[in-house]
């Protein structure tokens, strides 16, 4: 927007975040004020020469006489003044002498300014007459006629007040002019910003505040600053500039100002005229306390005592300056009408405030009820149920559902319920387009630019039509975007929207924002809580897996060290053990005494056991490499049962079930026989008098062998440590405790594992046996 000479700016359409910064906006306004018309040449010359110390009355009279219209107005003012001369004043020179230079200067300024405003009023009336023919015409809020009536009333009141203050009587005429021009800044702003200033006044009236507050908020400067700038442009005296700028300010703010007395007088006069509703002041806040202001001036009279004389003088001045032809009674009636209008406006405002308070109470109650209903909510479904219930309670009953997505890339969730008595139905929907575009995310993001607005969003509803079959009429549905989390320019993460068939009452639309935020926050909190719980579970599982992995690594490291030891021991001990075993066997053959022969045989047996122990320890640390062959199941089981009974020196009954196992599988037969023999031997030794049952079955790519006995089962300690090296619960003289450890090592070599469990008659009941399951991976 470029400010051209004579142009009228309209900042009602130029927000601060538009093309102009606030600083540039103020600069443009001040430039247009500087471009306003200057005072007429006659007025400018009178102001200039009246300030000189050697001014001549004849010079001022000659200047006034050069403008016949102005001369007649000055004569009329002089005749109607209180000098007591009346019709005796017949010449301009005589009027100048009788009134004095200051009074003449002030009168000339009053007449000229009133004429400027009158011309602007005439143009405005013509514009309004033309505009009335248009349907779009809107009446102006700015009341120029009322403002000038108010300004003249303030001028007359100021003139009356200085008469009551002895040390201010010499500034009587200056007080009149200061009161007359105190609101000239309003006229300037209305001239350069007609629509914007009407908006300012309308907002001030709605909020019942001073217009200067709204002026600074919307325009960047107030009418005080604009009036001072115009007064400087007109070369008005500094005292007038200061009064225009600082009136209505607290006394302490003007204590150091040279014109503080005139400022206080105009402030007090304006408060009186606002209290009496004389004209239109342009402000809507509470009137300053008149008695307090008068006490600062030393005036003890009651303000009401001024009213009759003030109304008479105001009516005269209005006629004299050509503003209006009202009589005193008519002015009084107009003041009463202004009072009635003011009371009516206050009544309307109170009614609106009551409606606002009722709506706010309803919203606060809804928020409180909603928070109470979500205290126990732990899942997204529970939070969604509370949101839908709150929406129905606030917006009205009917169909309602929630559209949610918890993570980017996830399917959307539609939680719907046709009526309050039916729980929310939660089902996943996929509306990604063929080019992988996040269609719903884009639609919600575009509508979320105006949060809290309920829109039809027909394109979104069409996408969901197949999933909204329970809605009475999809055309009546409205979509309320709750939140959208953008990730990139065209992808979105967590999103949520409410879909319902109720319109929001206009009075509630802005007030509902906190409730919408509460719904959004509750859903997002539930999503985050669910995500945190899921991450906690994953963390626990990862910790468990890490602990198991660390245990496996520790075992492997221990076995590796054991392997190093056993490898060295085997190398160093095998030869001596072989010699011991061989010589013991020879001795047993040569000795004739049975006792000696038994001793030699025992020596040979002990040497063999020690050799077997070293081989077992070596097996734990260095697993053998499997050799894959065709393994025939019934032959394997037959070998296992035979070897187990021989090793256990028992005659235990062993039942075998191979009905669910294949006849032949490919794996290392010898390693399988060795592993399974250790398991069966352990079962036989734990319960020699009982029964053993072996069941073989195929589970996917594995073959499993279940070895069950009917003994006392495993103790809790045994379940945890049975496969640890050298673990045994047998008394002194026990076995070495390496059988199950060796079996697990062989099972791992075969790609399987071993698990231990107890058999119970009923869940949690007494133990009736144990079951050891050995698995091996079948080779391809």
Overview of this protein structure:
The protein is 57% helix and 11% strand. By secondary structure, it is α+β, with helices and mostly antiparallel strands. The chain folds into 4 domains: 11-324, Orthogonal Bundle (Hypothetical protein af1432); 376-511; 535-618, Helix Hairpins (Orthogonal Bundle), CATH 1.10.287; 624-777, Histidine kinase-like ATPase, C-terminal domain (Heat Shock Protein 90, 2-Layer Sandwich), CATH 3.30.565.10. Helix 7 (144-164) packs across helix 16, helix 8 (172-181) crosses helix 14 and helix 9 crosses helix 12. The radius of gyration is 52 Å and the shape is rod-shaped. It starts with 21 loop residues before the first helix and ends with a strand.
List keywords for this structure.
single chain, 780 residues, alpha+beta, Hypothetical protein af1432, Helix Hairpins, 4 domains, 5-stranded antiparallel sheet, 5-stranded mixed sheet, disordered N terminus
């Amino acid at each position: 927007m470029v400010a051209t000479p004579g142009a009228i700016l309209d900042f009602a359409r130029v927000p601060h975040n538009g093309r102009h910064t606030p600083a540039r906006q103020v600069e443009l306004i001040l430039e247009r004020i500087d471009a306003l018309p200057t005072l007429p040449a006659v007025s400018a010359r009178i102001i200039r020469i009246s300030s000189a110390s050697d001014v001549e009355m004849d010079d001022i009279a000659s200047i006034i006489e050069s403008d016949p219209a102005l001369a007649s107005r000055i004569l009329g003012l002089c005749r109607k003044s209180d000098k007591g001369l009346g019709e005796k004043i017949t010449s301009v020179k005589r009027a100048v002498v009788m009134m004095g230079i200051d009074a003449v200067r002030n009168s000339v300024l009053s007449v000229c300014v009133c004429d400027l405003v009158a011309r602007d009023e005439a143009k405005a009336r013509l514009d309004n007459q033309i505009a009335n023919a248009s349907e779009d015409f809107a009446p102006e809020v700015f009341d120029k006629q009322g403002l000038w009536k108010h300004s003249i009333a303030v001028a007359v009141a100021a003139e009356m007040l200085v008469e009551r203050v002895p040390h201010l009587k010499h500034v009587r005429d200056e007080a009149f002019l200061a009161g007359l021009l105190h609101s000239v800044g309003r006229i300037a702003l209305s001239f350069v910003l007609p629509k914007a200033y009407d908006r300012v006044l309308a907002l001030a009236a709605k909020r019942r505040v001073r217009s200067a507050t709204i002026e600074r908020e919307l325009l960047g400067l107030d009418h005080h600053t604009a009036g001072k700038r115009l007064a400087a442009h007109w070369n008005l005296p500094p005292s007038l500039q200061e009064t225009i700028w600082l009136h209505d300010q607290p006394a302490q703010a003007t204590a150091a100002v040279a014109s503080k007395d005139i400022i206080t007088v105009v402030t007090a006069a304006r408060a009186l005229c606002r209290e009496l509703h004389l004209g239109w002041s342009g402000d809507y806040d509470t009137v300053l306390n008149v008695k307090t202001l008068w006490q600062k001036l030393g005036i003890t009279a009651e303000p009401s005592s001024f009213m009759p004389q003030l109304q008479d003088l105001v009516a005269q001045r209005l006629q004299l300056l050509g503003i209006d032809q009202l009589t005193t009674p008519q002015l009084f009636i107009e003041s009463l009408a202004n009072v009635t209008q003011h009371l009516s406006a206050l009544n309307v405002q109170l009614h609106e405030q009551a409606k606002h308070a009722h709506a706010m109470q309803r919203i606060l109650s809804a928020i409180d009820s909603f928070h109470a209903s979500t205290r126990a909510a732990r899942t997204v479904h529970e939070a969604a149920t509370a949101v839908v219930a709150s929406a129905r309670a606030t917006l009205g009953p009917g169909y309602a559902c929630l559209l949610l997505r918890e993570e980017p890339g996830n399917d959307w969730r539609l939680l719907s319920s046709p009526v309050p008595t039916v729980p929310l139905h939660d089902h996943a929907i996929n509306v990604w387009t063929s080019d992988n575009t996040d269609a719903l995310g884009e639609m919600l993001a575009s509508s979320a630019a105006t949060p809290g607005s309920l829109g039809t969003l027909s394109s979104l509803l069409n996408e969901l039509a197949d999933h909204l079959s329970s809605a009475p009429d999809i055309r009546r549905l409205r979509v309320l975007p709750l939140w959208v989390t953008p990730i990139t320019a065209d992808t979105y993460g967590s999103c949520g929207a409410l879909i319902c068939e109720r319109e929001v009452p206009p009075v509630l639309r802005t007030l509902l924002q906190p409730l919408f935020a509460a719904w959004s926050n509750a859903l997002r909190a539930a999503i985050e809580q669910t995500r945190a719980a899921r991450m906690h579970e994953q963390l626990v599982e990862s910790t468990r897996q890490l602990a198991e992995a660390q245990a496996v690594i520790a075992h492997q490291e221990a076995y590796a060290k054991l392997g190093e030891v056993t490898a060295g021991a085997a190398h160093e001990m095998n030869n001596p053990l072989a010699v011991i075993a061989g010589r013991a066997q020879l001795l047993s053959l040569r000795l004739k005494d049975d006792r000696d022969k038994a001793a030699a045989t025992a020596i040979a047996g002990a040497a063999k056991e020690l050799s077997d122990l070293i081989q077992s320890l070596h097996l734990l640390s260095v697993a053998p490499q499997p050799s894959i062959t065709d393994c025939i199941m019934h032959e394997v089981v037959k070998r296992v049962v035979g070897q187990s009974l021989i090793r256990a020196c028992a005659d235990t009954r062993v039942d075998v079930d191979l009905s669910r196992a294949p006849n032949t599988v490919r794996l290392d037969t010898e390693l399988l026989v060795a592993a399974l023999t250790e398991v069966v031997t352990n079962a036989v030794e734990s319960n020699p008098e009982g029964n053993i049952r072996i069941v073989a079955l195929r589970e996917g790519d594995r073959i499993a062998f279940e070895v069950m006995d009917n003994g006392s089962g495993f103790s809790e300690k045994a379940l945890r440590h049975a496969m640890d090296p050298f673990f045994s619960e047998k008394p002194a003289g026990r076995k070495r405790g390496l059988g199950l450890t060796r079996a697990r090592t062989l099972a791992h070599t075969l790609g399987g594992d071993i698990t231990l469990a107890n058999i119970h008659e009923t869940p949690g009941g007494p133990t009736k046996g144990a079951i050891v399951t050995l698995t091996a991976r079948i080779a391809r």
